[in-house]
Amino acid sequence: MSSRGRVSALLPDFPWDTIAAVKARAAAHPDGIVDLSVGTPVDPVAPIIRAALSAVAEVPGYPTTHGTPELRAAAVDALKRRYGITGLDPAAVLPVIGTKELIAGLPRLLGLGSGDLVVIPEIAYPTYEVGALLAGTQVLRADGLTRLGPQSPALIYLNSPSNPTGRVLGVEHLRKVVAFARERGAIVASDECYLGLSWDSRPFSILDPEVCDGDHTGLLAVHSLSKTSNLASYRAGFVAGDPELVAELLEVRKHSGMMVPYPIQAAMTAALGDDAHEAQQRERYRARREQLRNALQGAGFRIDHSEAGLYLWSTRGENCRTTLDWLAERGILAAPGDFYGPTSGEHVRIALTATDERVAAAVERLRAN
Ligand SMILES: Cc1ncc(COP(=O)(O)O)c(C=O)c1O
Fold first, then answer.
1. Are 259 and 292 within one domain?
2. Which of 41, 182, 260, 327 is the most exposed place for a label (fewest CB within 10 A)?
3. For all residues of the chain together, what is the average pLDDT?
4. Alpha carbon distance 82, 214 (integer Å)
5. What angle (nearest 5°) sits at the alpha carbon of residue 6, between those of residues 4 and 10?
């Protein structure tokens, strides 16, 4: 008799199914839906990236799991130029097929199991928990180290700027997490998907010398090109940091065929080598954020955190599903806060990822309120 079980039974229900009805209501608006529920880019991929992709489209061979030397050098240079990260060896960079894939597999790739504890933010991107559940570890939601008591976690996730709250962790907080992790033998995985999208305060990488004193031991920074370079469709990200940990991830991923396609590696190299397209995209989001923020506040919403990242963490001081209904009547779809943890049931997450035309439509509807 096989002992086969359904792996999906380990996982929570797919939360997006719970907003299907409210989405249908928003879609019934005579001027169409303004979908601000997901953080998916809508602006075109920059020409310089598309050219790099198509320039190698005829190459037939397998790509390497570690990525081309050009890609890894471009990542090291970009992290230095954009975020002041120094001392990173190109060997300690590993491309991934979008960072969601890495996050969902990380506890298993690191060899964690039922005896281990994974700490995730109290209000968190759901895939941190998914990865822990797939590996069968314990999971604790905690933003402060005191919540941990005497426990020694195996892995601590950080996400600054946060999805969904837009909260940015200060240098002192990050330094304390690094010191705590080193004391207790934990790995810190810092999801830095939104590091390039800051508005009102400066986020820091876990690999910033001000945070880790130039010592990357036990630290992994996870970087996605989905948001900053509009590359969600390409599936493009990388992990960088502790050379030993990255070498271990590389070894397992080599055996598993977890390779980033070669044309995507070329596209990533171009994207990491060019800051102009990134700056242009940031300015698009800045303008949309400004308009949506003013309109939401004018319509009686309070916006918490949101000092960086792609979302306005908004509340009307009521159950988030009531707020979702209120927005859907105006043809606007948001994501309910209860997707992200048990303590965020009065917030909705409003994404900045809609075209200027759709953002203007949302603003008009909120103003007409
Ligand atoms: C916090 C966070 N991490 C990781 C990801 C995954 O990004 P990707 O798989 O596109 O690299 C997302 C996407 O929304 C995110 O919000």
1. no
2. 182
3. 97
4. 17
5. 125
Using CA atoms of 264, 273, 218, 222 in order, give the dihedral in degrees to the nearest 10: -50
Q: Which atom of ligand 1 is nearest to the CA of 310?
A: 16
- pTM for the full predicted model: 0.97
- Per residue in 196-242, pLDDT (tens digit) is 999 999 999 999 999 999 999 999 999 999 999 999 999 999 999 99
> Does a structural domain hold residue 37?
yes
Q: Are residues 38 and 69 in the same domain?
A: no
CB atoms near residue 89 (< 10 Å): 12
Q: How far is the CA of 194 from the centre of ligand 1 (A)?
A: 9
Give distance in angstroms: CA of 319 to centre of ligand 1. Answer: 26
Residue with tokens 């949302």: 362
Number of domains in the chain: 2
Task: Specify burial of residue 115 (Cβ count, 10 A radius: 0-12, 13-18, 19+).
Answer: exposed
Which atom of ligand 1 is nearest the CA belonging to 235?
Answer: 10
Return the ∠ at Cα 237 (arms to 214 and 85), rounded to 5°.
20
pLDDT, residue 13, reads: 83
Q: Quick one: 191 and 269 in the same domain?
A: yes
CATH code of the domain covering residue 228: 3.40.640.10
Is residue 191 exposed (0-12), middle (13-18) or buried (19+ Cβ within 10 Å)? buried
Write out the residue range of the structural domain in which residue 311 sits.
7-44+277-368
Domain C-terminal end among 224, 250, 273: 273
Minimum-distance ligand 1 atom for the alpha carbon of 237: 11
34 and 51 inside one domain: no
3-state secondary structure of 140: strand
Same domain, yes or no: 120 and 14? no
Identity of residue 137: T
Instruction: Give the burial class of 9: count Cβ atoms within 10 A of its Cβ; 0-12 exposed, 13-18 middle, 19 or more buried.
Output: exposed
Cα of 30 vs centre of ligand 1, distance in Å, is 32
